[in-house]
Amino acid sequence: MMNFTFYGQSCFLIEINHKKFLFDPFITGNELAKNIDINSIEADYILVSHGHGDHTADLIPIAQRTGALVISNFEIITWLQQQGITNVHPMNFGSYTFEFGTLTYMQALHSSSFPDGSYAGAAGGFILASPHHNFYYSGDTSLMLDMQLVPHYARIDTAILPIGGNFTMNPRDAVKASDFIQCNNIIGVHFDTFGYIKIDHAAAADLFKEVGKTLLIPEIGHSYNL
User: Fold this and answer.
1) Residues 6 or more apart in contact with residue 93 via CB below 8 angstroms
2) Whose CA is closest to 47, among 34, 16, 192?
3) What's domain 2-225's architecture?
4) Lower CB count within 10 Å: N or C terminus of the chain?
5) Alpha-carbon distances of 81 from 76, 78, 109, rounded to whole Å
């Protein structure tokens, strides 16, 4: 079983086998997440898909407070080390077996830079394969044929995909992505935060229902057992 807690945009916490994985910590600056206290969030691991501010705004303070192992691409990890964060693990596109399972860093079709405009490496997503639950988080991406490789690494129980459009996939693209990755249980992220990515929730859910799939559009601050 996997527990999923949504903190807005693409920031969420997954708990599997008593281990807490925080993804893309952006809460401060998100008006929709103003009731979330970042000091209440605990994590054993922090995974960062790319360097944009709406994925990294709270990365340093949460990493400092929790002491979590931060996993991301080489460029983001190097930048973190320059900020004094030392509990880190750099990756590029490939797989590594940690104590919690095998993590694969996959390509995403998206840009990546730090808030000052400097290079933040290539954008990516993560596949986590464990004895307890397999999930795929695509990160910010458009629809891409590389998603067809995901089942090569693991049979995916749950996938977390962006659905806001404009900067990433929209709901229709996410339906096709679910075909590519062979997963019928989808959680939508990266929606509603800005004007460009506001969506019709009911219409998005209906697109999945029409093809016998499930789309969970999570509420900020809510947890879900999956």
Assistant:
1) 105, 106, 107, 122, 124
2) 16
3) 4-Layer Sandwich (3.60)
4) N
5) 9, 5, 26
Determine which helix (DSSP H) or strand (DSSP E) holds 70, and give its type and residue range. Answer: strand 69-73
Nearest to 96 by CA among 105, 107, 88: 105
Strand ranges of the sheet holding 45-47, from the earlier edge strand across to the other edge: 88-91, 69-73, 45-47, 19-23, 12-16, 2-6, 223-225
Q: How many whole angstroms separate alpha carbon 37 and alpha carbon 99? A: 29
Amino acid at site 203: A
Query: What are the residue ranges spanned by the domains of the chain?
Result: 2-225
| Alpha helices, DSSP H, located in 58-170 | 59-66, 74-82, 150-153
- The answer to whether the beta carbons of residues 22 and 3 sit under 8 Å apart is no
**Residue ranges of the alpha helices (H) in 83-226?**
150-153, 171-181, 201-209
Among the listed residues 184, 130, 106, the one whose alpha carbon sits nearest the alpha carbon of residue 19: 130
Q: What is the pLDDT of residues 62-107, one digit of tens each?
A: 999 999 999 999 999 999 999 999 999 999 999 999 999 999 999 9
As given in the structure block, the two tokens for residue 181 are 């990755």
Phi/psi class of residue 9: alpha, beta or left (left: φ > 0; alpha: ψ in -120 to 50)? left
Structure tokens at 165: 């459009």
Tens of pLDDT, residues 7-49: 999 999 999 999 999 999 999 999 999 999 999 999 999 999 9
